[in-house]
Design goal:
Elements: E1 4-6, E2 12-14, E3 19-20, E4 27-28, H1 31-37, E5 38-41, E6 44-47, E7 54-55, E8 58-59, E9 61-63, E10 66-68, H2 71-74
Bound molecules: zinc ion (2 copies).
Protein backbone atom coordinates (compact mmCIF):
# COMPACT_ATOMS: atom_id res chain seq x y z
CA UNK A 1 0.00 0.00 0.00
CA UNK A 2 1.69 3.16 -1.15
CA UNK A 3 1.01 6.21 0.91
CA UNK A 4 2.27 8.51 -1.82
CA UNK A 5 -0.27 9.17 -4.53
CA UNK A 6 0.57 10.34 -7.98
CA UNK A 7 -1.28 11.70 -10.97
CA UNK A 8 -0.39 11.55 -14.62
CA UNK A 9 0.69 15.20 -14.29
CA UNK A 10 3.44 13.89 -11.99
CA UNK A 11 2.10 15.72 -8.96
CA UNK A 12 2.90 13.86 -5.79
CA UNK A 13 1.45 14.14 -2.35
CA UNK A 14 1.29 12.03 0.75
CA UNK A 15 -1.59 10.86 2.88
CA UNK A 16 -5.32 10.94 2.42
CA UNK A 17 -5.97 14.55 3.39
CA UNK A 18 -4.87 16.45 0.32
CA UNK A 19 -7.19 16.49 -2.68
CA UNK A 20 -5.63 16.62 -6.10
CA UNK A 21 -7.76 18.18 -8.79
CA UNK A 22 -7.78 16.14 -11.99
CA UNK A 23 -8.78 19.23 -13.96
CA UNK A 24 -6.33 21.94 -12.95
CA UNK A 25 -3.83 19.63 -11.25
CA UNK A 26 -3.58 21.71 -8.13
CA UNK A 27 -3.34 19.79 -4.86
CA UNK A 28 -5.51 21.19 -2.08
CA UNK A 29 -4.99 20.62 1.62
CA UNK A 30 -8.64 19.92 2.41
CA UNK A 31 -11.82 18.79 0.66
CA UNK A 32 -13.33 22.14 1.62
CA UNK A 33 -10.72 24.02 -0.34
CA UNK A 34 -11.20 21.65 -3.22
CA UNK A 35 -14.93 22.39 -3.27
CA UNK A 36 -14.27 26.09 -2.96
CA UNK A 37 -11.97 26.25 -5.96
CA UNK A 38 -14.49 24.62 -8.26
CA UNK A 39 -17.12 26.78 -9.89
CA UNK A 40 -20.28 25.73 -11.67
CA UNK A 41 -22.27 28.12 -13.78
CA UNK A 42 -25.10 27.09 -16.06
CA UNK A 43 -23.82 23.65 -16.90
CA UNK A 44 -20.21 24.73 -17.15
CA UNK A 45 -17.57 24.25 -14.57
CA UNK A 46 -14.01 25.16 -13.95
CA UNK A 47 -11.34 25.90 -11.41
CA UNK A 48 -10.16 28.98 -9.61
CA UNK A 49 -6.39 29.21 -9.41
CA UNK A 50 -5.07 29.01 -5.85
CA UNK A 51 -3.78 32.56 -6.07
CA UNK A 52 -7.37 33.76 -6.49
CA UNK A 53 -8.71 31.92 -3.47
CA UNK A 54 -8.68 32.66 0.21
CA UNK A 55 -9.83 30.57 3.11
CA UNK A 56 -12.10 32.93 5.00
CA UNK A 57 -9.91 35.84 4.00
CA UNK A 58 -6.60 34.10 4.64
CA UNK A 59 -4.33 33.78 1.65
CA UNK A 60 -3.40 30.30 0.59
CA UNK A 61 0.19 29.21 0.52
CA UNK A 62 1.87 26.35 -1.26
CA UNK A 63 3.63 23.97 1.09
CA UNK A 64 5.36 20.96 -0.40
CA UNK A 65 3.17 21.22 -3.46
CA UNK A 66 -0.06 21.37 -1.46
CA UNK A 67 -2.13 24.53 -1.33
CA UNK A 68 -3.73 25.46 1.97
CA UNK A 69 -3.53 27.79 4.91
CA UNK A 70 -0.70 27.71 7.37
CA UNK A 71 -1.13 25.32 10.30
CA UNK A 72 -1.65 28.12 12.77
CA UNK A 73 -4.46 29.54 10.66
CA UNK A 74 -6.34 26.29 10.34
CA UNK A 75 -7.47 26.30 13.93
CA UNK A 76 -9.62 29.34 13.71
CA UNK A 77 -12.46 28.01 11.72
CA UNK A 78 -15.39 30.19 11.04
CA UNK A 79 -18.59 29.47 9.22
CA UNK A 80 -18.38 28.53 5.60
CA UNK A 81 -19.20 31.13 3.07
CA UNK A 82 -20.58 30.32 -0.29
CA UNK A 83 -18.67 32.03 -3.00
CA UNK A 84 -21.02 34.08 -5.10
ZN1 LIG B 1 -9.20 22.28 -10.17
ZN1 LIG C 1 -2.70 15.89 -11.70
Amino acid sequence: MASTVTCHCTARWTGVGPCHCPTCHVTWATPELFDQHRWHVRGQDGCWPPQELTDHGRPLVCQDGVWGVLEVEKRRRVGRRVRA
